[in-house]
Amino acid sequence: MERLRAVAGFGLAVISMGAIIWCTMAAEPVPPAAVPPSMLEADSWNLPATRAEPGVERDREAFTEVTIAPASAADLAGVPEGRLDERRRQVKVTIVHRMLMDSTDSLAGTLRQGAEFPRGMRRFTDDGFGAVKVNGTVLAPASRLPPLLTTEDGRTTVRFTVTLLRQVRPEELMRVDFNAPTARPLLVVHRKVTLRPGEWTVLRAASIEPDREERQRLEFTVGVYPVSVTLAQGSYGFPDVREEDDFSWATALGVLTAVVLAALLLRALGGEWWQRTANRELAAGLALAVPVVLLPAVAEEFTLPAYVMLFGGLPLLALRHAVQVLPTGPQWTPRDALGATGVGVLLAVGMLSWSYRYGQLPGDTLLTGSGVAAVAAAGSAVVLSADLGVRIVVVRLAAFAAGSAVALLALALWGKALATQVYPPDSVRLLLAFCWALIPVAAVAVAIKQWTRGAAVVAVVVSLMVQGWPSEWLDAGSWSREVPGQVVPHIGELELTPAVRGVMGLLLLGFLLLVLRLRRLGSALDATRSSAAEATMIICLMVAYLAPQGSATLGDINVPLPMLSITALIAWVTARWLLTHPHPSVVEPGDQEEHRELIRSALHRRLLLASEQELYRAGRGRIGTGELSMEEFGRQRDGLDAALRRHGGHPETAFATAAGCSPWHNGVCGFVVSLLLSLPFLIVFGVPAGADLSSFVFEARSVIALPAFGFLFGYFYPRVRGTQPMTKALHLMAAALATELSGYLSALAEPDLGAMDKVQVVAIIVGKVALVSIGLGLYWEWRIMHLAGEPWARVRNVRSLRSLATPLLAIVIAAVTTAATSAAGQTVDRILRGDETSQQP
């Protein structure tokens, strides 16, 4: 009987596998997606007349003339002085659109009405003729003359004139893009374009067949497709080899930043971490994997090994390390297995639907094959597990087998589609995201010392977001067929390929692990004296202030080196200055009750000191008038001295303690308060945006940088310079201000930048830092009193002008910052946001 059941079970399994193989072999190659007409037009020079859309007037003619010339002093009269750079070329681009039509044309009557002028003129010219874009720094908004209409011999001509002012470096190329018209119906099918380059030389002409090509004149005809012309300055000689200084401050700072971060990381891990064999093996594996992952940056032929290492080798290495370190394996239940099977079946159904929609398999073949595979697999599971005698277990195994068969069929069909280079575009990113998710699953498990379902689910979701879900995966074309030439998102000059997204995700994961380490170390009150916690905190602060500024080569080796902002190094120096200072002996309370007693004793001591001061102040006059004898004065003074000695002769330090809270709790409070105080400045610095989670977090560094100082303030509050909340806050203000201003040194040192622009930039930065620091100090003062169960008025009397000085200073700073913000012009916005160029006309 046992042999018969085994034969039947394995026979059903073979039938299920045979159905999967049969469907895979019968699958036809999916035809590639048709290239959109706009892309075909971009590669053709001639526009067939059959492409004319209904409603286009055949007797209309359109002409565009673009003239490039040096900008004169009169042209630049309205440009703010701070934007002009004498080392660059100021260029005036004049665009003239002309359209000829019959005087009886309805469009001529519409133009004569002048509706929505001047707002509607830009929309009319950009949509009807196609927007003309010119790169370079925008010196002033585009200016447009009123449309000029003339009629002669029954023909009406309308003329539109647009003037652009740009500023370019001598070695910079100028690109003029003639975008396709978007108005429907079309005003015209063909456009005659004349380009007069002046002192510039036409270097590249994409999608253009010239009608006339001369030194000072280029004529061509375009249709409903975009074209572009790239020009180089004719009087500038481009050297074959650019001579650079042997010493580069940017490269030196980049190397120094990397060395400091590496040294701090070694100090943060500590000697105990390196004593474990599993950790040393992990470090060795990472040392071998990192060069392979980064090789495509210098040699594109190593892209495939980099993908295999990033999405295959590193996940396996992370899982192996987690299995070695953790005492037990994942405690997954049958419900977890069924849940994972359900997710796999949903994805499989999506792939099978794609196979049916695009003709990989006919519907009846697909249904028959998947049904036979699922039923046979379920039957095999039932037959082989029937001797267990537990019905629920048999049912679960049957469901798991059936789902696995359907998923295997979908995976086989996807593999065949992948082999024929026609597949759902985002399906590859989905698979890579699931593979990459194993890294954060293992990393978080090691960080929290256990496997958890919640962490696994969150890691998978974060992995999908790192690869662009859901912002990019909701596109209708993402799950159709791959279209050649699709635009890949960029962050700066970096193309966001799956590998780049994965590397950025690893950097984000590393930052998260450092924060989790701070949480683990910060659970004990003595963490403020831990060198590992201090090094970890400084690393997080430096990473928040890292700002890549392009790349350079190291020596004669052609290896790109990211140039990092000096702000990271200044953050390291100022953080060390805040925490390395001889502090008075601080008695840390073990709980809230001890904190309450220390605060009450401090308040009593303050009362005695105030009484002694009042005795000396009032006693001088009372002794002189005879109201107080010397003996009585001496008795009162001795009584106050004795009371002060009973409360200790050392300086007051009750307001310099952690208030009985853990460093992690204090750090989170400091971060949240600092973040809330700095949020209004998003109006000036801009709201972060990004194509995926990693790029969004990268853009959000400016939002969390200053709150990171607030986190340091709370985490290491007993070690921060000063003995009172406000004195500590003022020291924090000095450190944060030096770090924030260091990021604008190059702009503030620019000689052509106006003095008022510099004053506004400094006022905004100083106002932001001061408001956050003073606000955090006031909050901390209130929090210490609140935790002690005492009213805040006992340390800050609202009826005292001296006590109100600090809140009033914060209000004045906020008012001045608001005024500077409202008065900030385009130059100040460009400096604060870091935008150097714009392509908007």
Automatic annotation (TrEMBL):
It comes from the Bacteria. Keywords: Membrane, Transmembrane, Transmembrane helix. The keyword Nucleus does not apply. The chain crosses the membrane at residues 247-270, 282-299, 305-323, 335-354, 366-386, 393-415, 427-447, 454-470, 499-518, 530-547, 559-579, 668-690, 696-717, 729-749, 761-780, 801-824. This is ABC transporter permease. It comes from Nonomuraea harbinensis.
